[in-house]
Amino acid sequence: MLTSAIRTCKHTAVVTLLGTSLMACSTTETQSFQVNQDSSVESAQIATDANFGQYDRLHAVEMGIFFPQGSYTSPEDMQRIRDIFRGAFLGQLENYVIVTEPGPGAMTVQATLIDFRNAAYQDVMNVRSDLRDIAAPGKILFLMEMRDSVSERTLARAADSAKTPAIADEEGETTDWTSVEDAAKHWASLFRQFLDQNFGK
Fold this sequence. Notes:
By secondary structure, this protein is an alpha/beta fold. The protein has a single domain (2-198), classed as 2-Layer Sandwich (Double Stranded RNA Binding Domain). Helices cover 22% and strands 32% of the residues. The chain has helices at 75-92, 121-125, 177-198; strands spanning 2-9, 15-18, 25-35, 43-47, 57-60, 64-68, 98-99, 106-115, 140-148, 154-160. Strands 1, 2, 3, 4, 5, 6, 7, 8, 9 and 10 form a 10-stranded mixed sheet that branches. Strand 9 (140-148) and strand 10 (154-160) form a beta hairpin. Helix 1 packs parallel to helix 3. The chain is globular and about 45 Å long.
């Protein structure tokens, strides 16, 4: 069992962060997680007090994309990556009710792509401490976090880097869009498996 914390985030950072909260934060209260050793992803943690039975819909928020400072991916490429992942995930969630506003009975789902291929030690230290072990330099990581949409208390998180998309990180390089689509389909399928096993139970 792991014990981490619910935190109040600082607004100073040396990394580029779009659409999510991964920054180092100040501790306000502790929270315990069970590590799922039988998971099909590299890291899976579920809060010991998580009760998925109280949720009957998903509150979907925009995908986050996280790069170390100095890395370059064009805004157009980032939007296309978001669109590909959104399409893949929506395709896997046809039987689930999806809402755009938080509220009682809604579980927030936040997907984040963390590109640490060119990360330095300080980049890792600026990430929340509960993510540092999985957001290691040298790889692209897909992170999915589930939270209560009202309290924002973390219910579960899963991370995986087995299916790595080839994303341009410097001007002049080209993103391999087939690899992005394959990774999106792979992770969307894994997320659907998690929901089928846990959501509403």
